[in-house]
Amino acid sequence: MSRPSHSLGALFSHQRKNWSISLAKKGTMASHIVGYPRMGPRRELKFALESFWDGKSSAEDLQKVAADLRASIWKQMTDAGIKYIPSNTFSYYDQVLDATAMLGAVPPRYKWTGGEIRFDTYFSMARGNASVPAMEMTKWFDTNYHFIVSELGPDVNFTYASHKAVNEYKEAKALGVDTVPVLVGPVSYLVLSKPAKGVDKSFCLLSLLPKVLAVYKEVVADLKAAGASWIQFDEPILVLDLDSQKLQAFSTAYAELESALSGLNVLIETYFADVPAETYQTITALNCVTAFGFDFVRGTKTLDLIKGGFPSGKYLFAGVVDGRNIWANNLAASLETLNSLEGIVGKDKLVVSTSCSLLHTAVDLVNETKLDNEIKSWLAFAAQKIVEVNALAKALSGQKDEAFYSSNATAQASRKSSPRVTNEAVQKAASALKGSDHRRATNVSPRLDAQQKKLNLPILPTTTIGSFPQTVELRRVRREYKANKISEDEYVNAIKEEIRKVVELQEQLDIDVLAHGEPERNDMVEYFGEQLSGFAFTVNGWVQSYGSRCVKPPIIYGDVSRPKPMTVFWSSTAQSMTKRPMKGMLTGPVTILNWSFVRNDQPRSETTYQIALAIKDEVEDLEKAGITVIQIDEAALREGLPLRMSEQANYLDWAVHSFRITNVGVQDTTQIHTHMCYSNFNDIIHSIIDMDADVITIENSRSDEKLLSVFREGVKYGAGIGPGVYDIHSPRIPPTEEIADRINKMLAVLERNILWVNPDCGLKTRKYTEVNPALTNMVAATKLIRKQLASGK
């Protein structure tokens, strides 16, 4: 989206005089940042977006906040001495959606009539509107960031419809910063897209390459005309196991772009894993590419490929500073890696970089006032990682900051030897787990029969995923309790009252299995982390998940154990308010792992087994307290799947095993649920079955019911299953008929006695004015289908 042309200079002219800087004067080193968090150190963009969506502020107000954030990021990198500073990594929602806007690939349902894409069309694609649903959202590789999936087909008329990339380049230039514009690469863009509704699923998305490249050529010409000397193409799919057709597409695409790119330095950026050997050979042979960016944190084998040969005269952007975690870089170890690379590519061709965009880490450690000094010394957020990158670049050029390196070495040693990190009893208990498979004694079918005798649920039982809207008042109560402004009694009474309202609402709506709404919880991972040992917490360590939604991952720094029960009081309180089954709500060990900043000094599997033992204790205490339905969410199980196929079986083995550990000890009559969020599940369906849960609720509606295809293809599923019937990430309220149609589609491939009816996900981000009618329609649709089934229709 471009800002109205008259305001391009006005929005940041007040800053220009303060810090227009000559980069040459700063003496910048060969340093580069792949990308940077957009939300702002105190989530300024989140609040500006939500204010705009609520109609409380104007488009100009939102653009002003965005321009100020971009300006401060560019200033920060300039002041730190970074040479290759990115632009166009800022986004109002998602960088892949920005690429869709740039290409004018707007699905017809949004009724876009051409011209520069504005906020109304852009946010309708991202969030849906009153009349049409949003585009599909799914996980960005193996991260907790979500991107908007493009919907393409042979009839898409690609056209240059968003000049955001060139506008932001000019914006930075007017501030005295010559940036590297960043574009989602054309091949990654197409491979990450999907055939639009009505387009044959076998349609080859790469057949659209010539049409897409025509627009990329226009964008490149625009950037050249504006004065850009470098351009960065993010091509993250290069780390996947690509077939020969996709590899050929890279050769074809960049050969086609060669003349357009003439006179520009071109960086191909990869991240999140090693680049396979065949892929490495393909991309390093591309003529028009000046530089290659590789992830040396998660891609340690790439070093061997480079040792085997690197193209003469090309630049290597070495991602040695971790863009996905919050631990301070081991500068001595990174310098060793860089020195060995320098011997291969040459001093003047080596650039120090981050392993990926810093989008996936917290913004600035300076804003953390409550972390103790020891733990704080072990950490580096995005702002500190910029400094680390430059410190490494300076050391390479013979200007090593000895005091900075000495302080870093002291912090590394402190973390290694701290007694806070190790608990021998926990390590011994986790170690002992490896001798058993941890399966419940009875198979799922007789368990479901025993549970039905106890629960006596109707056919197509209805439930919600757990959370209910977190109102302003509710957040205020939690905030005041944390700040000691209200007493514990006042807090408990306020939360009990909120639970009572949620229980009464569900009873009025006639939902069958209830949830207590989780009013006491700030976040489904942080809430548990706060009650487990081995965790630390931030005040402002927010990370973007999607759109304006941010999460604050806990930091797992040591061995994990559960000192006392965490949820039993609230679940028992909620169950005492109703005769209907009340779900105990827990977060599973793999999700706690994948949604935390995890210690990097032991295998992830070890940490997960420790968490599994803690959750097992909690499950058994809930059962003792009379809770007969216990949900253990594994929302993030799929996202932790390694990107390379050779590593996937091992991950799924320990991840699924960890889930089974949590509930291996419960009785047959205790019903274990799990829930999974946005992801592509079809390729791991057999692992999901192997989790051996009694009921799984799973995202389905926003992905065009992609999940159901796996059952159409003959996979037999004998446990209870609730594919979501409506998308909770959109404010749209689905009509009864639409939900009934979804249920009928499910009944075409699933047995009626195992099907559950539920939303896609928890309701905490929605408002009651959206939740009440949506759930009313969900229950009405269920009753309609029950009636039809009873009458034999």
Automatic annotation (TrEMBL):
Residues 460-783 form the Cobalamin-independent methionine synthase MetE C-terminal/archaeal domain. Zn(2+) binds at residues 675, 677, 686, 690, 699, 761. 5-methyltetrahydropteroyltri-L-glutamate binds at residues 46, 144, 549-550, 595. It holds the Pfam family Meth_synt_1. L-homocysteine binds at residues 465-467, 633. Catalyzes the transfer of a methyl group from 5-methyltetrahydrofolate to homocysteine resulting in methionine formation. L-methionine binds at residues 465-467, 518, 633. Its cofactor is Zn(2+). It catalyses: 5-methyltetrahydropteroyltri-L-glutamate + L-homocysteine = tetrahydropteroyltri-L-glutamate + L-methionine. SUPFAM superfamilies: UROD/MetE-like. The lineage of its organism: Eukaryota, Viridiplantae, Streptophyta, Embryophyta, Tracheophyta. It comes from the Eukaryota. InterPro entries: Cbl-indep_Met_Synth_N, Cobalamin-indep_Met_synthase, Met_Synth_C/arc, UROD/MetE-like_sf. One of its GO terms (biological process) is methylation. Keywords: Amino-acid biosynthesis, Metal-binding, Methionine biosynthesis, Methyltransferase, Transferase, Zinc. Its EC number is 2.1.1.14. The active site is at residue 729. Binds 2 Zn(2+) ions per subunit. GO terms for molecular function: 5-methyltetrahydropteroyltriglutamate-homocysteine S-methyltransferase activity; metal ion binding. This is 5-methyltetrahydropteroyltriglutamate--homocysteine S-methyltransferase. It is an enzyme of class 2 (transferase). Belongs to the vitamin-B12 independent methionine synthase family. Pathway: Amino-acid biosynthesis; L-methionine biosynthesis via de novo pathway; L-methionine from L-homocysteine (MetE route): step 1/1. Residues 31-343 form the Cobalamin-independent methionine synthase MetE N-terminal domain.
